[in-house]
Write a structure and sequence with these properties.
5 helices; 178 residues; single chain; two-stranded parallel sheet; mainly alpha
Length: 178
């Protein structure tokens, strides 16, 4: 009995859906285990960390400049006219920093959108070719449990698609490096 259960479990990961069936792919699994997704995610994460580090560095410098200015003001170490000029200069620095931080936040969002577009395009292109051979009536994507809440495991083609995606990605990557 235990051997039959193991064999049945092994069979459940192999897609046995017939031509014309409506099948589904678990996109969460694909995004978590697709080599291209992992590599792109690492690249984007590194860029995001570098951007955030630079924004933090500039923000810290601005805070120090403001604090030094306030200390000089409290101690009466500058004239009112000098304080006015420096205060305006600090306000300008703060405005410039806020613009810079907003631009960098936009840059981060753009990087993430581009990454998701690249992944979406690679997955869609692969699924189009994949379905030319398999001839399914429809391939649904399932992410976060929607739209497919539950389904026959035989209709879940995720493992087959993931294997194909990774195989194609490695082949493409090797061709580029040659």
């Amino acid at each position: 009995k235990a051997e039959n259960a193991v064999a049945a479990q092994a069979d459940s990961t192999v897609c046995v859906a017939a031509q014309g069936a409506i099948v589904y792919v678990d996109l969460d699994v694909i995004l978590a285990r697709y080599d291209m997704a992992n590599e792109l995610s690492s690249v984007v994460e590194t860029k995001v960390q570098n951007i955030q580090a630079e924004v933090n560095r500039r923000g810290t410098k601005l805070e120090k400049d403001v604090k030094a200015f306030q200390e000089k003001m409290e101690k009466g170490l500058m004239t009112r006219s000098v304080a006015e000029v420096q205060g305006q200069k600090l306000q300008k620095q703060e405005q410039d920093f806020n613009v810079y931080a907003a631009q960098k936040q936009q840059e981060i969002q753009e990087e993430q959108v581009v990454m998701m577009n690249q992944l979406g395009d690679a997955i869609k292109t692969f699924l189009d070719k994949y379905n030319e051979e398999k001839q399914y009536a429809m391939i649904l994507t399932n992410q976060g449990g929607a739209p497919v809440i539950t389904g026959d495991a035989a209709l879940n083609i995720t493992d087959d698609v993931l294997a194909g995606l990774n195989e194609e990605y490695i082949k493409t990557k090797n061709e580029k490096s040659e």
